[in-house]
Protein 1
Amino acid sequence: MRSSLRERLERLGPVQGVVLVESGSPATIVLRRGRRDVRSVAAAGALARRGVPLTKAKRAIESLDAHASAVLSVPRLESLPALCGELEAAGFAATQVRPADPVDVRDLRGALGLTREQFALRYGLDVDTVRHWERARGGRTPDLAALRFLQAIARDPEGMARLMEVDARPASAASFGASDRPRPRSDG
Amino acid sequence: MPFTTSEVEFEITEADSGAVVIVRISTPIGSLACMAELVEEDQGRTLRTIGLHVDDETLGPNGLGVAGLRDRAGGDGKDGLRCDRR
């Protein structure tokens, strides 16, 4: 802040910094409006106490006027429930973006009952790359993008497999559903 | 109802090197928390607030009112009042 502006504010009252939470780890959160009447200042204060620059917190909150959600990097998250509680009291909802935890590719493939080649084909991967990921010694660790993809497969194997598929039918037929279920009958 | 200067307290919180601040205004009838980006204009004679948000902390809705808030702000340089609580 410019010193002249700070001097002007100090004439009004004491100017102090935000009291940060004692400790915490970096996290990424997704912010949404929980209800129509919100307390934006309280929400921005809760984020600022976790190390989010106040300007960024304000911009994220304001972006919710036009967008359903806003993603924010929180440098110092001590407890997700504590932050969620404060944001909920202010009329907002927050979730945390899943951390990039390691994925054991061999275990994942085994759980899906697929051979290495089937797994690679199903998810559009290179079979040699999968082999390297599975090698206990001297193998390669999936990079961040691959890790996120593997996490998504572990979470929703069928859904991710569907995303890899191209439907040759016309768009209207494809959107009707892969199983071609009959429409519910209207008796009205 | 106007308040005397001694009845109104301002507590300003600056969270980073940016120009956004939180100002808590305590009055005899309750307190408000405001957040805005502050810009000095007219060679420092005017303080402009951009994107002002106001939370009523202990005042009910319209407990102070826009007119009262404008009076307390002591100016008319605001670009608009963002109203979160309707």
Protein 2
Amino acid sequence: MLEAYGQALVFLFSPSTLLMMLAAVLVGLIIGILPGIGGMLGLALFLPFVFGMPKEIALTFLLAFHSVNFTGGGICSILLNVPGDGPSATALLDGFPMNQRGEGARAVAAGVTASSLGGLVPCFLALAMIPAILPIVMAFKSPEMAVLVLMGISFIATLTGRSVMKGLISGFIGVLISLIGIQGATGTVRFAFGSSYLYNGIGIVAVALGLFGISELLEMSLKGQRAISNAPVKSRLSDAFAGVVDVFRHWWLWLRCTILGYIIGVLPGVGAETSCWVSYAYAKRTSKHPDKFGTGVVEGVIAPQAANNAKEAGDLLTTMAFGIPGGASMSLVMGALFMVGVVPGPPMLAEHLPLALTLLLGIALANIMGGFIAFFSAPYLARIASLRFEFLFPLILCLVLAGGFVEHNTMMDVVVIIACGLLGLVMKKFEFSRPGLLLGVVMGKLLEDYTLLSIQIAGPFFFLTPICLILLAILVGLFAYPSLKKLPASCVGRLKKS
Amino acid sequence: MTRKLMLLAMGLILVLSLALTSCGTAAEQKPADFYQGKNIDWVSCTEPGAAAYSIAQLYSTYLQKVTGATGVITVRRGAGGTEGPMYVYNGKPDGLTMGSWVITPMALQKIMAVPGADYDMAKYTYLGSVDLSPQVFFVATKGRFQSVADIKAGKDLKLAGTSIDGNFTLGSMTVAYVLGLDAKVVTGYKGVADVVLSMEQGETVGMIMPVAAAMPSYKAGRIKPLFYIHTKRSDVFPDVPTLMELAPVTGDKQALLEAWDGLYQSFHTFSSPGIPADKATYLQESFSKIMADPEFQKEIDKISGYHVTTYLSGKDLTNMAEKVMKASATSKATFDMLTKQYAAVKR
């Protein structure tokens, strides 16, 4: 084992590997920052280079690139209110208001620190955690997944904003949007109105880009705003350092969200978006000042950013250790492993232990590199907030529309982005919950898919399994907790009165 | 007047000579010259990472060496899987639009009249195909069902499927029908990875999968093959029997298994219908040249995870598509009957 570690470290710290990893990290961060171009597309672009390359180099490059992608995505969300990818949409809820207050450097630094450490920690815990992961993965069948997704979707109630009713309506609209297209299990076409574009449903990225990016641009234009920031921009290194300190100040929140993201990551089929939204909603629900979430509190940046990279690390480890890809991007990584002659799964740890450790430590190193690069760039990037809006508007608009287009190569996605932008503007004006709608889009289809599978397998009472019941009890507990917490105080008050 | 007439005549001669010269150039331009430096609009009907996408990438690299044309690959898998085939079907017949996919889902979409599948399989210009990947019934290595006898003895079994009209689902239904199982096919799984996990979790018993798609899980020791759905064995698993060997059948059951012989999972490349014969022949010959290249074959073996022995020419593919489409009405009636009997959900 020690020999394998030694081999891995010697390979990783050779100058050529370090240089190559640095290049991968830089490209990964840049692609992450570009709106709409997620890691999946980036991986697809680099996959051809795997052909003919030595496996250690090819895989370290791909994984280093992928590891820092979400770190970059969060930066774009915070600075421009444009989600770099689907999961990063959560970072803008509090990150962008911080940027508008001139605290962009602090928000970015908090985000990248939470994200990098969130990706780093699971790598070191991986070997210890691997024996514990498999029973979890095997225990979560379709019924358990259905209840887990139900837990996720119930967080719409947490993201409602001032009016619960408006929040629930937003979530319901999101769920309806998620149901557009062909239902896989039954083959039924729904809400497509004869348009073949709608058969595959509406993409989460297009909805997120429109709902947040375009609507914010339109609003700022209508207000005649001169720059993103309404206050002087704090763009010194010490301002960024305050963000790092924030993460350590909220270490307990960071740790909980990292673990939450990691656990969601090891469960196949839930998706990165789920881990971020659930972590954000969890942070808000357990916060002492939930009402401040959405107005620019640093916890609102730390929670989802910690979860997104932890999720990816968890997903990656499950793919390597068991050959079970958790999501689409991991299927791609699995394909790359397969192409270079490495079969992911238990044989990989047995037959290619030095390679497995190289990849594991490589992910850790990439996260450290990505964190440092992003941290030192944060003060400069934050200055974007002070740029004149007439220069920024066309640039952001082009980035958003191009980012939306490249996902499926269709102009219809651009139409969806603009339509969602107008919808977002109206929702903002009438105080409907845009995060609630997006969460509905993210979770609605998953809930339907898992529920249908569960009914086919175990009938309508599929939720009567021990794990489902425990999860349901936790769900009830989470919702009852704030009222229960107030109960003793109100009882004491009544007693005093009487 | 005479001067005007002379000028008119000279103008006419000039126009005619220009027209004739250009016609001559067009007529004389050989396909080999035509493709030099051209861009090919190449559609992948699967997502990056899938074998069909990787094969398209490999094809385009080698085609550039042979023809000098550059393949620009874009993923078009929208419209429920019909976007890619329809894009190529409606493409200009100039030989500069191509698509790569797997023939089974493309044929099944057409046979099962999936919304949006408005193409005619027999009209495409087929260029070449890699690997006739056979379809095999796999079960979990550590699962409760380890043999056909175990499965036959089981009650209220759940076999796995993906989309209701998909290859995996209809394959699993065929198995249930031919073996006379007390089973339902659970539809809605997203793909092989999801299904393999469900088999390991004990949620489902097994599923029909093309060998190419199942290979990563097989090599990881997670699943094992029980039988081929086809009437003949393949070199990939020479010791694995066919369904026909296990359950000698006649009549409609035999016809159904024979129909699956035409539904091998083959990664084919096709161009728009009606491209000029000389270009079609040139492309088909170029693809044959590529497929005969040992370096190309070595790369294909890497992607597939096993030694691929079958490469089909464009003409073979055309015959195959015609055969499948000729039997499409009968196949649809049979698959509809199977869906009614074995689907765990109703349409």
